[in-house]
Amino acid sequence: MSLAERLRAQIAADGPLTVAQYMTACLHDPRDGYYATRPRLGEAGDFVTAPLVSQMFGELLGLWAVEAWNRMGQPSPVLLVEAGPGDGTLMGDVLRAVRLAPGFLEAARLHLIETSPPLVEAQRRRLAGGPLEPAWCGGLAALPSGAPVILLSNELLDCLPARQFVRTERGWAERMVGLDADGALAFGLASRPLDQVLPQAAPGAVVEISAAQAAFGAELGALLAREGGVALLIDYGRGEPGTGDTLQALKGHQKLSPLDSPGEADLTVHADFPAVAAAARAAGAFAAPLLAQGEFLLRLGAAERAKTLMQARPDRAQVVQRQLARLTEPEQMGSLFKVLALHAPQALVPPGFEEG
Question: Quick check: bond before 77 cis, omega within 30?
Answer without folding.
Answer: yes
